[in-house]
């Protein structure tokens, strides 16, 4: 019986092909890339290029009436302004993922939350990148007073906010209106979790795919 045919929760098993050579080919402000020469099962050697990213967190902020917060901002790689859930990079060694989620909700959403749960963990493109993202559900929301709001800059300076019923946001995922992968995964997971009363993991639940760097809190 194969792994996919066994009962219970599926698990991705540790498995590594030998790397005979690895070279960094690019280093930017956030992203880097390396080129590996990897031994295949038949003994041949193939090149595999890997994009290296720090990871990120996303937040589905759900209010007491069943609405979720979406924000719209410019995304340079696609040359468009996209509606998304609040999200941000895990590019600081001084923040845990849950602390980063709280910061992003404050900065982009102008909100605080009293309850946090983990919705889904994502490997966004495991065939070419090591990026992993955790999407959290935030409830028990309160609005940050205007005089305490975060002063946004760069793309976020023209950020827009919109409250949308969760069911409507899910329909936008299915009709292609919402395209950001973190957003689509988070909203669909939130809809399922709220409808099925799923016992979600805590915000600081183990995150095996998250690579720990020196100084990381998790």
Explained architecture:
The protein is of the alpha+beta class and 218 residues long. 17% of the residues lie in helices and 37% in strands. It is built from 3 helices and 11 strands. The protein has a 5-stranded mixed beta sheet with strand order 7-4-9-8-11. Strands 1-2-3 form a 3-stranded antiparallel beta sheet, with no helix packed on it. Strands 6-5-10 form a 3-stranded antiparallel beta sheet. The chain is globular. Mean pLDDT is 90; it is low at 213-218.
Fold topology:
Layout: E1 19-27, E2 32-39, E3 45-52, E4 56-61, E5 67-75, E6 80-84, E7 87-89, H1 97-109, E8 111-123, E9 132-143, E10 160-165, H2 166-174, H3 181-196, E11 201-202
Parallel strand pairs: 4-9
Antiparallel strand pairs: 1-2, 2-3, 4-7, 5-6, 5-10, 8-9, 8-11
Helix pairs in contact: 2-3
In short:
By secondary structure, this protein is of the alpha+beta class. The protein has helices at 97-109, 166-174, 181-196; strands at residues 19-27, 32-39, 45-52, 56-61, 67-75, 80-84, 87-89, 111-123, 132-143, 160-165, 201-202.
What is the succession of H and E elements? EEEEEEEHEEEHHE
Task: Determine the strand fraction and express it as a percent band.
Answer: 35-45%
Strand adjacency order, main sheet: 7-4-9-8-11
Mean pLDDT: 90
Distance between the termini: 36 Å
What is the overall silhouette? globular
How many H/I helical runs? 3
- Which parts are unreliable, with pLDDT below 50 for 5 consecutive residues or more? 213-218
Query: What is Rg?
Result: 19 Å
Helical content stands at 10-25%
| Main β sheet profile | 5 strands, mixed
How many DSSP-defined strands?
A: 11
Structural class: alpha+beta
């Amino acid at each position: 019986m194969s792994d996919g045919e066994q009962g219970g929760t599926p698990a991705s098993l540790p498995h590594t092909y030998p790397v005979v050579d690895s070279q960094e080919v690019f280093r930017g402000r956030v992203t880097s890339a390396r080129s590996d020469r990897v031994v295949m099962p038949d003994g041949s050697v193939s090149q595999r290029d890997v994009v290296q990213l720090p990871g990120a967190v996303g937040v589905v902020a759900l209010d007491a009436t069943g609405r979720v917060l979406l924000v719209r901002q410019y995304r340079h790689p696609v040359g468009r302004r996209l509606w998304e859930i609040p999200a941000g990079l895990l590019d600081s060694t001084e923040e845990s993922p849950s602390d980063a989620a709280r910061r992003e909700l404050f900065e982009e959403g102008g909100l605080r939350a009293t309850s946090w749960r983990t919705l889904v963990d994502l490997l966004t493109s495991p065939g070419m990148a090591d990026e992993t993202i955790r999407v959290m559900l935030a409830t028990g929301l309160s609005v940050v007073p205007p005089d305490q709001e975060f002063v946004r800059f760069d793309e976020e300076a023209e950020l827009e906010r919109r409250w949308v019923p969760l069911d409507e946001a899910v329909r936008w995922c299915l009709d292609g209106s919402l395209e950001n992968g973190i957003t689509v995964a988070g909203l669909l997971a939130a809809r399922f979790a709220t409808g099925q009363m799923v016992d979600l993991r805590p915000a600081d639940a183990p995150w095996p795919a998250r690579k720990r760097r020196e100084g990381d809190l998790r």
